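Hi Y.,

Following your request, here is the sequence exactly as I used it, all 379 residues.
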Amino acid sequence: MIKTLFSEFNPKGLIKSDDKRFRYIDVLYVIGILLVVWGHSHPIDESWHGTWYSHLNGFIYTFHMPLFFFIGGYLMVFSRSVEELGYFKWALGKICKFLVPYIVLTALAYYPKSLLGDTSDIVSLSFEYFLTTTFLIPRIGVWGHFWFIPTFLILDLAWGAWRACVKKSNFVYRAGLIIGFLVSLALAIFPLLSDYFVLYDLSQVALFYASGIITALLKPVLWDKHWKNWLWIVIGALGTYFLYPFGNAAFRYTPIIGGDMFYPYSDQPIKYIPFNNFIVGMFLVWACWNLGKSLSVFKFTKSSKIITQYNFTIYLYSWPIQAFTDVILRRIGTNWLIIIAILFAIGFIVPAAIIFIYKKATFLHCKFMDYLIGIQTTK
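Below is the corresponding structure, written out as tokens. Let me know if you'd prefer a different format.
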């Protein structure tokens, strides 16, 4: 039998591996969460628009969230939870993990944000607005960055359903992979121009999730040596340099308001080509992937698993505290550079404090609170 890159497919989507933990994934999570907090560390007013930092921020938005979807697809291939728990029990756990903090934190912040009025994601004070933006259009909800939660949940549930249906059929498994990748590719080229049910966001990131799956299923001949890792990093940097002006993710089509919109920090003079957005993002995600592989051999990266363990908590609570802190700092006339530094620091300090307090307050430990905080203390 002739061996191919896909020869080691397992009907359940698993690959035999002696690694109990992928340290390079921990490194990637550290890179990803640093970029997320950094990308949110800016004032909501126009004081920083057109500066060097605005262009750097636009660059971060090209690949910081695609990196998380790539990791998610990669890790789902190695997960045994669907088979061990059964699809419905596994799916219920996923839904609780994502939707409990999504709904509770949205509800808690709704009224305060509507009163402040000058935070990001401006909130209208009406029950209809709350229901519509929470369940139909997350992009303009109380927390705009929460679009990630339903988008990631939908992709996870779809992938899990596929695996549950496949069972032991190699043919169906491979056919499903090909179909899923082609559908994701079609969505990247011809996106669904609607923000309802995160359809546009799914169009933008499904291909990164699918690429993560394929990467996990390939034999690692492309990245099994350090010199190959660094070669791919260089290729990623060069590809980004030449294509970035045509595919900056800071540009976003906004179906809600009915047209194209350039974010203030994306003053590209060259015509935007939608599919190049994926190509540029993939160059950068692939460069990060290989950087993670290279850095994982160093002892200092052992501590990265700590951040990985709490990265969802950091994601959940960093932006809310940054948004409210920004309001206070702007109202007292703080310089935008100082605001950026404070927002970046507080984006980690407050989630760390929440984690510390919750772990110490054992009387609070229960499934619901675990979901709300984003960490596990109960089994």
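The chain has 15 helices and two strands.

Thanks again,
Q.
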